[in-house]
Amino acid sequence: MALALEDRLAVTELIALHGHLVDGGELDRQAEIFTPDVVYDMSDLGQGEITGIDSLTAAALALGAANPVAHHVTNVVVEEVAEDRVRARSKGLGVMADGSCGSVTYEDTLVRTADGWRIRHRRMLARRVPLGGLGQG
Which SUPFAM superfamilies does the annotation name (predicted)? Predict the structure, then answer.
């Protein structure tokens, strides 16, 4: 069965909401985005995995001024995996206070809960070289 258009829109808006809430310092609203047991995998960035919303909030606060001032997300692609479970891939741009920026790919697993779609697992992959490394010699 194909994922309904309404679900695709809800998932895409949920992924976009993350940047608005984090950039606005509304960390107390992360339950609107993530499941309570979320696994946020930043191993590719050298920061390991963070499990649970409280730990995710604590990590953001500990990073403090080193957090991006702006999170932008684009190129969201949603794939149904099973009933009430989807995978989404998107591109993220983080803008730092000094104007530098970085690019990541988000790989998300989302589940439908009683409160709507939520991210259960997010993996961040840093984009470091063009073309995924092809043609780099």
Answer: NTF2-like
Residue 97: φ, ψ to 5°:
-60, -30
Edge-to-edge strand list for the sheet holding 70-82? 49-51, 34-41, 116-126, 101-113, 85-95, 70-82
Structure token pair of residue 81: 């995996």
- pTM, two decimals, is 0.94
Question: Can you name the CATH fold of 5-128?
Answer: Nuclear Transport Factor 2; Chain: A, (3.10.450)
Binned average pLDDT, 10 residues per bin, the chain of 137 residues: 92 97 97 98 95 97 94 97 96 96 97 98 94 83
Amino acid at 135: G
pLDDT of residue 135: 85
Per-domain residue ranges for the chain? 5-128
